[in-house]
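Listing 4. Sequential folding, example run.
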Amino acid sequence: MAKVKNIMIRGSNNRPIVLDIFFNESRPYQPAIIYAHGFNGFKDWGNFDLIAEQFLASGFTFIKFNFSHNGTSPDQPENFVDLTAFSENNYTKQLHDLEQVIDWVQNNCNPYGRCIDKKSIGLIGHSMGGGISVIKAAEDARIKALVTWSAIAFCKTPWGDWPKEKISDWKQTGVAYYVNGRTRQKMPLNYQLYEDYLNNGTRLDIIKAASSINIPWMICHGTEDINVPLNHAYNLKEANGRAVMVTVSSDHVFGRKHPWYETIQPTPMQDVLNRNILFFKQHLDK
């Protein structure tokens, strides 16, 4: 078994997407799982390598990546050191980045291609990455199975509950700020984020995308999630009755935190992982 970290490919506005791949050199053409992180996330949040290793041990190739404008950099993939890039992030850029990762996975020139079954790709998305994954799964036939964790049902992160006065000030000044609860950084959000939503409303309609998904889908959500309340999961389930819904008594990140120094996952996260692995084993070709 092997892993290669911090591979760089080209993302939105030619900014780098940094990705990791976990694979088994002795077992060619395994189903591939791609993971898309959330709004304040990154591919290594909460020692995500431990999760990747579980999928690898279960017979999957696993790919995780940093969105090109998530605020990290290739040399500091776990720190928000590029707030200029962060301020220019938006949903359509993330959709483009995810497509670039899928293209890389399926590229005939991929040096790890022998470890990937290109016809058997699964997608996991967390929080905002979950909403992005719903949209991408609806529009990209290369995705054969979908799992969402604590996914948003509306492309309105983080401004969805802001009052009209704050939105007006945002438009006038061109930038708004919020404080990252973990790092205490003042994170800038340029008004282009809101404009991207207004200009691409049809494509960014997560509920509409959810209703059109006809591949296997598992919706996972914590009943105590205060970041993305449980009603988002019920909205997604209502839009697509074929989806399997799993709730666990936990928070937005299923009991994890960053940094994570333990060698095992918290019980809620492990419960979700066990269900996800069985789900992908059932629905992705071997």
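-- end of first protein; second protein begins --
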Amino acid sequence: MSDLFRIFNTSASALTAQSVRLNTVASNMANASTTASSPEATYRGKQVLFQTVIDQEDPNGVAMPVRVAGIVDSECEPIPTYEPNHPHANKDGYVFRPAINVVEEMANMMSASRSYEANVEVLTTTRALLQRTLQVGQS
């Protein structure tokens, strides 16, 4: 029975982590076409780092929760574009855009969404198993 509760904990932690990932991807996509007058002021794409949480009561690793270890900025350099008439152009006529690949971000969004859906399904199935277990106990 305690294994079922560990599965709930693991899936819930994965839902939380994937939710953070989805929000981060949405932020990257929303800022993909922003401009700045210097590389330092340019939005940097963000990536979520996950970390497995070791359960001391589960040495076999049946259910290992995950947590967000952090959100890091991309190390890709902003993309300079010569646009002297742009309102954000610097004195040399350049604007800087974040090095965000929208296709990669869409793939990340689809992956996070599918992972989220899979964990919802795990929770639903585990709940059904728990209910059946309780019904057997009542008989």
